[in-house]
Amino acid sequence: MDNQRPLILVSNDDGLMAKGINELIKFLRPLGEVVAMVPDRPRSGAACSLTVTEPIHYELVRKEVGLTVYRCSGTPTDCIKLALHTLLERKPDLVVAGINHGDNSSVNVHYSGTMGVVMEGCLKGIPSIGFSICDHSVDVDFAPAAPYIRSIVQQVLQQGLPRLSCLNVNFPAIPDYKGVRICRQTAGQWEHAWEHFAHRGDTHYYWLTGEFVDADADCEETDHWALNNGYVAVTPVRADVTDYALMDSLKQWFE
Known about the structure:
Layout: E1 7-11, H1 19-28, E2 33-39, E3 58-64, E4 67-72, H2 76-87, E5 94-101, H3 108-111, H4 113-123, E6 128-133, H5 146-159, E7 165-171, E8 180-182, E9 188-191, E10 194-200, E11 203-208, E12 211-214, H6 223-228, E13 232-238, H7 244-253
Parallel strand pairs: 1-2, 1-5, 2-4, 5-6, 6-7, 8-13
Antiparallel strand pairs: 3-4, 7-13, 9-12, 10-11
Helix pairs in contact: 2-4
């Protein structure tokens, strides 16, 4: 492993065969030494979940100059924890997740296995970034995102990020972007989320589905507005979820 180049740890939640992570690795290789620890199957919606009821394992998939790829039976968060604990000779300079096939803006950040990768890196004190595109197709064209990904990664490698802060970056599903918008998370909810499709006796079967209801549709500060208007949405996210304003109010309860 080249100790002179930045060390970049990579994972995703779509699995090793997804086009997104293979394109991400291609975009990142000129910027540093890349180690990828990737789930062995799709893990969308895994969020920050851990495997605690069974052992997990990993295996080497390929090793080249500047790139090592492993496949892991665990969740996206497991992948990062295990790589940090067993694989790497030094602390990574960066953790990068993606490129996710699908939108991880707004409340999706809380469910996303992609952002589970990012949060774990962030909690370990490593600058971390998640990249997603608002397109679920398996053969989506990631080329328009390449210069933005390289630019954002280079900026973070050079300047770092505050402790317990990370970046959630989403790309609209269009061939040309208008530029970058720094955004807050859109306020919204998934509704009508369960579709009943069968039952056998007293057992009922449901698919998770639903539609997103945007409560901030006209607000230009939000990630959804940026994506709907052709911009790359960059949302800073904090792993510290303490509500500091509410702390002050709660103290008055116990005076």
